[in-house]
Design goal:
- Belongs to the inositol monophosphatase superfamily.
- It catalyses: a myo-inositol phosphate + H2O = myo-inositol + phosphate.
- The chain is built from seven helices and 14 strands.
- Helix 1 packs antiparallel against helix 2 and helix 5 packs parallel to helix 6.
- The longest helix has 26 residues.
- It is 35% helix and 28% strand.
- The termini are far apart.
- The protein binds D-MYO-inositol-1-phosphate.
- The site of D-MYO-inositol-1-phosphate (IPD) has 14 residues, from strand 4.
Length: 264
């Protein structure tokens, strides 16, 4: 078995176990542990517990690998492979009881900096719907056993998704971006989990997705899903404090880039 397939097998097994724990904790009642960058940016006890579970499972299975997660300290490994992990992407949905949240686990090689690494394997698991999205580089993207493909035709305009930063100071800029994009959209979704938005682009449930200021763990796994489903992903304005991630089928991706490239 190739390294990529071994890694995706491990990632999906751990993501399913982690997602089942998140769903159990949600059913028991969610406790807010702290706020982070802003009042809107929250972490629950479950985010931390689920990340610890994932980290421990990875440490036992692959002790030489590095780790970059949303809720705990990063660790550089010796193997050249780093796991990029969001234990619960869509934490605000999770805290409110909205089912759009996911465990996101990616294995990357080389730099642990988004846009510089080589993605090898990805698993995005949505516990509420029990849907497992996986991809291994060179082997395609899947929803369970079904092979995924991005959309190629958008005759009525593109069904797009986006997200907004937690810092209220960024809202005006994000809304201005939405205004510029709407002429090519048939409609816009803001579902609250970047990992699931990207998985849905891979599955053809959305035509494209764009968002400024994502963290690496929000998009590491989802971006590989899109690429392996035949789509394109770009991280533009990488020198800015809020780089823009754009994903979609080749044509939608190109049209969104054309509109947003010159934005500051
Ligand atoms: C957030 C979600 C959301 C996106 C935010 C992310 P978190 O991740 O992916 O959809 O709009 O930018 O921070 O905080 O729930 O892990």
């Amino acid at each position: 078995m190739s390294l990529e397939l071994e890694l995706v097998d491990l990632a999906s097994r751990i993501a399913r176990e982690a997602g089942d724990l998140a769903r159990l904790r949600r059913a028991e009642g969610v406790h807010l542990a702290a706020t982070k960058s802003t009042l809107a940016d929250i972490v629950t006890d479950a985010d931390r517990e689920v990340e610890m579970l994932i980290r421990e499972r990875l440490r036992v299975a692959r002790p030489g690998d590095g780790f970059l997660g949303e809720e705990s300290e990063a660790e550089r490994g010796e193997s050249g492979i780093t796991w990029v992990v969001d234990p619960i992407d869509g934490t605000v949905n999770y805290a409110y009881g909205i089912p759009s949240y996911a465990v996101s686990i990616a294995a990357v090689r080389g730099s642990a900096v988004a846009g510089e690494w080589e993605a090898l394997a990805a698993a995005v698991y949505a516990p509420a719907s029990a849907e497992m999205f996986t991809a291994a580089t060179g082997h395609g993207a899947f929803l369970e056993e079904a092979r995924l493909s991005v959309t190629t035709e958008t005759p009525a305009g593109a069904l797009l998704a986006t997200g907004f930063g937690y810092d209220p100071a960024t809202h005006d800029g994000d809304l201005a971006t939405v205004r510029r994009i709407m002429p090519i959209a048939r409609d816009l979704r803001r579902a609250g989990s970047a990992a699931l938005d990207l998985a849905f682009v891979a599955a053809g449930r959305l035509d494209g997705y764009f968002e400024r200021g994502l963290k690496p763990w929000d998009h590491a796994a989802g971006a590989l899903l899109v690429v392996e489903a035949g789509g394109s992903v770009s991280l533009i304005d990488r020198d800015s404090t809020r780089p823009m991630l754009i994903a979609g089928g080749t044509e939608v991706h190109r049209r969104v880039i054309d509109i947003l490239r010159d934005e500051t």
